[in-house]
Specification:
Layout lengths: L10 E5 L4 E6 L5 E5 L2 E6 L2 E4 L8 E2 L2 E2 L2 E7 L7 E3 L1 E6 L4 E5 L6 E3 L5 E3 L2 E5 L1 E2 L7 H4 L4 E6 L2 E5 L2 E5 L15 E4 L5 E12 L4 E7 L14 E5 L2 H4 L3 E3 L2 E7 L7 E5 L2 E3 L3
Antiparallel strand pairs: 1-2, 3-4, 4-5, 6-7, 8-24, 9-23, 9-26, 10-14, 10-25, 11-12, 11-24, 12-15, 13-14, 16-22, 17-18, 18-21, 19-20, 19-22, 20-21
Length: about 270
Amino acid sequence: MSQVDKNTEYTLTYDSGVKGFPSFYSYVPDFMIGMNNYFYTFKSGNLYRHNTNDVRNNFYGDDYPSVLQSVFNAQPLENKLFKTINLEGDDAWSATLTSDQQDSGFVDSTWFEKKEGSFFAFVRNSGDVPAGVDEYALRSLNGLGTSSAIGVVGGVTTVDFPTTLYIGNIISVGDMVYFGNPNPLLLGQVTEVNQNLPAGINNIVVDNTITGAQPAPTQTEYMLYIKNAVSESHGILGHYGVFTLTNNNTEKVELFAAESEVMKSFP
């Protein structure tokens, strides 16, 4: 089913074979008529005959995308992670995926890889900087530990940790660092991770000039970090996933099926 804005005009088609309304079209003719097995419309005083050339999705000189919308809703009572989009067809589509808990899943058409005749891609999560409140609970936020000292020199903040605390090797340059609990504040973006425990070095260096960064705390704080939501591909969390596929091709495109790799989410 096409995605339709209730405040926008559109043309609705009826199929006598399925006895239903299968498609919405973005063009709005002034008048339409079927005659001699052809479909004709009038627009601004001009007569048009449809389906007579190889150019698809072009109406009255304007190109429009093909948009399809449906839902993944197997086992609706279970909370799930929708990790991938797999399209069986002859072209890649861009995709967005929303759920009852998140609305920022997307796939660019250039990210699809053709595997065994199908187009496959991971669902990305756009994420916000600073992070929205919903991102803190959705597998995006990771704990570092309580700092032992915080130093600020201009646009650089150095956060030291006790040598008894292992920062780990998951945090990396480019991650966003937050502090405080229960409502974390953005400290800045990681530029260095320095770990040499025998030498007593255990710290991260943060750029505190990025948009949304808050002044560093004057005392030790519990530190957390969020990795880049697009590159890490956490997927979309929810009981169901509504996917919208968009294709801008003006040539014939066939799509047979859409599926997603889904795993149960355990609290």
